[in-house]
Amino acid sequence: PIPGKGLRRMLIEQGFRVLRIDEFKTSTWCLYCGEEKLEKFIDDNNPRPHRRAETPVIRSHAVLCFNNIKCIGRMIDYVTGWLCPRIIDRDLAACLNFRHIVDRLREHGSVSEHFMHPRRAGNVLAVAPDDGSPTRHQRTE
């Protein structure tokens, strides 16, 4: 059994509207300028002991940096007075983008295209139903 499935079913039975959100690009999309500009920037020791000989240092996936010059998420360093990029946790970026997705669903009834998987030939994208049943991709000929 899937732990979230019972919780989803219980919430639906209590009258809540349940949305299943796809996590595609939510942790790499910039919240401020609307471009895919969040990038890894911290070098860290490789946590895999068997790979340390090949690559002793890797880029950390946990902390991201806004690397866009026009991004309004830039901050001024209070010591030097220079502009410096804003640093954000990957999980926080994903949560804030989830909120953006839910707000967009409430206002417009659809998800922004930059959070959707690219269309594949022969598949039709489907919206997750509210009743908790699985989403199906229909084949078009």
TrEMBL record:
* Protein name listed in UniProt: Transposase
Organism annotation: Coemansia reversa (strain ATCC 12441 / NRRL 1564)
Superkingdom as given in the UniProt entry: Eukaryota
